[in-house]
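Weekly puzzle thread! Below is a chain. First person to post its structure in token form gets bragging rights.
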Amino acid sequence: VSLADGAERKVTMATAETSLKVIEPTESTTPPGDDIAQRVLATLKTVRSACDKLTANWVKVRHALADLRQQGKNHIPISEYQRICKDNEIDTEERQLQLCQLLNALGVVSFYRDDSTLMNTVFLNPNWITKAVYTILSDPELENKGKFTKQWLIERLKKGNAEKQAYSEIDSNRILTLMQKKEFDLIYAVDSSPDTYLTPRLLLNKTPDEANTWERQGALAFRYRYPFMPSGLINRLIVRLSGLLKEDELGNDLIWRNGAILQQNDCTALVVQDKTETGLEVIDISVHGKPFERKGLLAYIRRTLTGIHHDSFRDLNFEELVPCCCEACAELPEPTFFELTKLQRYIESGRTKITCDNEKSVQDVAIVDLLEGVVDTPVRNGKHGKGLYFSRTVYHSGKKMAVTEGSMDRIEEKMDKLSLLLEKAQHSERNVTIIHGDVGAVTETGDVKQTEVQTEEKKNGKKPFLQRTSTIITMAAGLVAILTGIWQFFLKSEKAEQKPQTVKEQVVPDSAASQVEQKAAEQDTTPPKTAGKK
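Winning reply:
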């Protein structure tokens, strides 16, 4: 343990199976009041107490699995594993799976509980999987091509790995499934060719014409910069985004070793690994399309890359950068980039602009323009907890209006909800409803799930919410129309009965009648009044 003053104190530990021994140092050079070493020792003792909770039966199961591996077994069915657990007095399924997951975390076995095709298998020898994958990816037939069929993989693994260990057809199918999982992210299935797979890391690094002529000006852009980029990171990203790959005229995916072109709705995105002038590795994202839609596509790509960071590279250092949008940077091959964390600090301090200092000019740029389409939610003020709203100019019916950032987000949210409700109302006869709250459950891409989830109402045999509501409204409107018709009918009948009686009661004298006729004649000769001027 390195201390603040440069002194060191050694802490040694030895492990054997599930025991942990902490050896206290013989002499201390810790300065008075500095308890760093003591805290480290306390942490190690905590780990030891956790290991002591592992019962002796769990250790026996581990030894039994190790014996099977020594006998040459690379995997066993989950039923056989459960039998071994029961023989060692681990009877409940919950404790059996808990132990299996612990052994998986320790690297003793490989177990994929979340995969329906692999959850019935416990892999005793993880190296057996690694050797099979290496055999496939190192084959000269795939070099600079990367595409292979399922049958080719089966035949190749039958020949054996570097140690002449052959794989059966069932084992080859297991290896094929493993290579597609997020733990590996090595291959993806090609939609245009059945039983065909492609691994991006074995492709030629030849950029297609559409990528070479990509128009960066006016695109929504974002950059990830890495002091050290793990090998194959861009390939993992392409595999996870393979469902959005754009095809050329011949039906081939627009993909190469260090990049790909994606397409979703009316948006197109370029994702490419590059290197800056200073030698740092970066992943650049550039999206063209309608403002609302390209914002969603960029957010989806960023979430996917964040998932890879979380799943495979927990301690990876990187920076999120936003390109400058000023006129001078638009003409430069490499614009000025601002760190997203720096923009956040500016916003929290109440500043709305940041200075762009490029080789052509120095000018202030509005932060809201830099973050337009990049952030999904309004940026919050960390000091006061209030939203910072920036004015934005929009055009509606040819008129210029100033709309705040917060209100604009609310407008977009209302529009999305309204569109979703209208779509649900139009297709209510499908009896597919997944209502959770105001408008329903929505996927990451904004599409409504229509097959996986059903409401409790449908499960109980009731009509979906929207259909029942529509029926009630229709019945109520019909009832109101009926009551209105009945009321109008009786009103007309009453007027018809009262009209003769009124005529009889109005007896006009002869002199009065003559005066009325004279006034009527005068009114006929009077010219009518015209509307307009008063």
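Puzzle host: Confirmed. Bonus trivia for everyone else. The chain has 17 helices and 19 strands.
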